[in-house]
Amino acid sequence: MKLSCKEASRLMSEGQDRDLAFGQRAALRLHLMICTACSRVKTQFAFLHRAAGEYPGPEPDDGPPKS
């Protein structure tokens, strides 16, 4: 199974949320070995996933301003 860059990026994104099937993982690894652009995208996805996981969320709202 040969992946296009579009398919590889979709699998990388899906792989952040669920376990990929063995064939999908193997095809993605092969693609990443030969495609530097997708390797960079994988690094960026990993960074964004970590950053989103560390985001504490908005600060609590104390209600409307008091006059």
Describe the structure.
With 67 residues, the chain is mostly helical. It has one domain (5-52). Helices cover 67% and strands 0% of the residues. It contains 3 helices and no strands. It has helices spanning 5-17, 22-34, 36-54. α1 (5-17) packs parallel to α3. The longest helix has 19 residues, at 36-54. The model has no long low-confidence stretch (mean pLDDT 90).
Biggest sheet architecture: none
Poorly predicted regions? none
| Number of DSSP E strands | 0
Rg over CA atoms, rounded to whole Å, is 18 Å
The structural class is mainly alpha
Mean pLDDT: 90
- Compute the number of structural domains: 1
What global shape is seen? Answer: elongated
Strand fraction = under 5%
Query: Can you give the helix content as a percent range?
Result: 55-70%
**N-to-C order of helices and strands:** HHH
What is the first-to-last residue Cα distance?
A: 66 Å
Count of helical stretches: 3
Features:
single chain; 3 helices; 67 residues
Write the layout of secondary structure elements.
Blueprint: H1 5-17, H2 22-34, H3 36-54
Helix pairs in contact: 1-2, 1-3
